[in-house]
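Q: Give me the 3D complex with adenosine-5'-triphosphate.
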Amino acid sequence: MSGHVHTQTLAHQPRINVVWRPQAGPQKALVDCPFREVFFGGARGGGKTDGVLGKWALKAQRYGDKFNAVMFRRTTVSSEDAIERSRQIYRPLGAEFNGTKNVWRMPGGGRVTFAYLDKVTDADEYQGRNVTDAWVEEAGQFPMPDPILRLFGVLRSAQGVPTQLIVTANPGGAGQHWMRDRYELHPFPRKPKVLRREVGDGLIHDVAVIPSRITDNKILLDNDPSYVTNLHMVGSKELVRAWLDGDWSAVEGAFFDGWAEKRHVVQPFSVPKHWMRFRSVDWGFARPSSIGWWAIASDDHALGDGRVLPRGAMIRYRELYTATKPDVGMRLDVEQLGALIKSKEQPGEDIAYTVGDPAMAAENGGPSMTMRLAKVGISCRPADNTRVGKNGAMGGWDQLRSRLRGEDDARPMLVVFATCKDFIRTLPVLQHDPDRPEDLDTKAEDHIADETRYACMSRPWIKKENIVPMKPKDGYKKVGAADQQSWRV
Ligand SMILES: Nc1ncnc2c1ncn2[C@@H]1O[C@H](COP(=O)(O)OP(=O)(O)OP(=O)(O)O)[C@@H](O)[C@H]1O
Ligand SMILES: [Mg+2]
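A: Here is the predicted complex, encoded as structure tokens.
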């Protein structure tokens, strides 16, 4: 690609009116990047929006009416930004915007559409439309990558346009854990790199990762020297560091900000027989069911590693999470689940009580789930389902948080065995609901948090006076290195 976008009418004239050109560095690397999946960005103001819009203007120039691009976003704000900027870049080229359909008709006949993506089914709507290029803006707002990855089922070019999916994001959103893992952003790379992966049947999928930082955007820094100062004013210290340095390990926005693996994860030990034990249950069918087995320390208890569990601390010593993959349930009926719960327990294990999702007690024409569980020997009482406290009373999330905080740094009131992998995978990365910050963003995998909340509410506790790697969920294996010959950066 020539790397400059010219106004069509003037392109052959000696004095060319350049509408847009990529800045040296990451933006240039993006424009030249030939790979099928591209991650671009990772820090604020690095030139992401301009970079993709500009790259698309160039592709539109090159491929004419075969070019058919769609920008996807989860919130309106991110697209307003891009639409606004696209007017400045595309209009002088002679492109025409249809504001009702949010589509640009580019001078050569190509199209750029702005669309909405939240669920997998939103992506499916674009099947069969010969979409050549997709861009997911603010991809960090997607708690799970599924809708984004589904776009690979949409990309298709019958006519020689190389298809590409571009993902742009800043750190700090609900999806930062999967993005960090998929694009290997921790530590945040200095230079562009290509991740080569085998995706099944020996097929190779190359993913380009192009880090960009505010320091790469000289135009912005020249035009608006106060930009960085402004960032400092709108974010916490950690978030600003994440925005500026692209530090994807910061869990800014984490709902359980008191979580720390070194405080809350303990090596399994044999739970003294006289400690009280109970279960907590969150029922799911299409979604996973989550069962926690808890014990209460009846006295201060020294752990082998020098730590002490305070008297009254809750210990999650076993869990059952019926997932076939993250957030997808095993579709067990209540009796099957009951049998599975029983099968995990030791003979003679004395369980004092079980608390469960109050919805399990509902009778919809037949016996409730609670009744059916009772038949297989698990008598479950409805948990206090208060999520957020009112009028000074503590809600379930407060209880969970204050137990994590504990009596002091060395004395957490809730710990989990290192074997409780799904707890350790899901709970630390849960985020605030953007519209209701006092509650959890329930779009994420929150079943274990719910079940733990039920457990905490059954043992109210009042004080007397970092990211865990997630297993990549999207089925790839890393293999060798890609051929970067065609892509000089
Ligand atoms: N190649 C370019 N030509 C002209 N201006 C540019 C170019 N690249 C970036 N800019 C300027 O820098 C500003 C910020 O860049 P851009 O919006 O692309 O950054 P961003 O990474 O998308 O930021 P954010 O993280 O806030 O979404 C743009 O509004 C534009 O004014
Ligand atoms: Mg942007």
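A quick observation: Residues 5-251 form a domain with the Rossmann fold fold (CATH 3.40.50.300).
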